[in-house]
Amino acid sequence: MSASVGAQKQARSVLVTGGNRGIGLAIAKAFLANGDKVAVTFRSASELPEGILGVQADVTDAASIDAAFTEVEAAHGPVEVLVANAGITKDTLLMRMSEDDFTSVVDTNLTGAFRVIKRASKGMIRMRKGRVVLISSVVGLYGSPGQINYAASKAGLVGIARSLTRELGSRGITANVVAPGFISTDMTAALPEETQKQYLSTIPAGRFASAEEVADVVRWISSDEAAYISGAVIPVDGGLGMGH
Ligand code: NDP
């Protein structure tokens, strides 16, 4: 039996970016149910379940991230688990994709993750422990027409997680990528019905997943049980991306 089984678990300070709705909110709820102290970032005012601390932040703005972390640290202590979840899409085919369509998606999804990880790493290095989870997508490694910007940003997260693992792995810090397939949220509801049907036909599981199914994996990869997993890409995609 593992030495940690039955030991008193300490509530950790958890921060989820873009945790006011969708997958981020499901992740925040999973950590709350786990007994952790949970904060989420939001951009516009949103109603959050009791027990979750909301802090305003835009991941494209380093100053607002710094202010949000300072608020979370004052309330819950240094962030020990960071989930970089905030993300956007601006889908269109290459020929129609403007430079702004490309750079704005990369700025939010990839540079935004860099900004929050950089801010969180200070406290993690000091504590000599930490969990970083980057929410990527099956599309990052599988590719998707009309999503060159989004796929590039999501593939880039793998490079961040693996480099972070090599830089900070010896300090008790892990960095992993969770790559969801199609999850029922506002993001997928916005896809045309025909596209949704087409995707469904290619998913071995024959269904989209719930946000909770992603949240459970994020909670587990951040647990003591997963302390020796770092730099991994964990698919939660019903088999869609097999062979990555
Ligand atoms: P939603 O569109 O439902 O939510 C996106 C979240 O990101 C919102 O909380 C939003 O905040 C936040 N956000 C967007 N831009 C910024 C910004 N500049 N600064 C701060 N927060 C921001 O998306 P999902 O829940 O579906 O997706 C969450 C993550 O999972 C994303 O990274 C997405 O790419 C990824 N993913 C989703 C899949 C799916 O099928 N849904 C599949 C694979 C990956 P606000 O409310 O203020 O807009």
Automatic annotation (TrEMBL):
One Gene Ontology MF term: oxidoreductase activity
SMART domains: PKS_KR (SM00822)
Record keywords: Oxidoreductase
Segments forming a coiled coil: none
Pfam families for this protein: adh_short_C2
The keyword Oxidoreductase is annotated on this UniProt entry: yes
Domain Ketoreductase: 12-186
Family statement: Belongs to the short-chain dehydrogenases/reductases (SDR) family.
Protein name in the entry: Beta-ketoacyl-ACP reductase
Organism (species): Arthrobacter psychrochitiniphilus
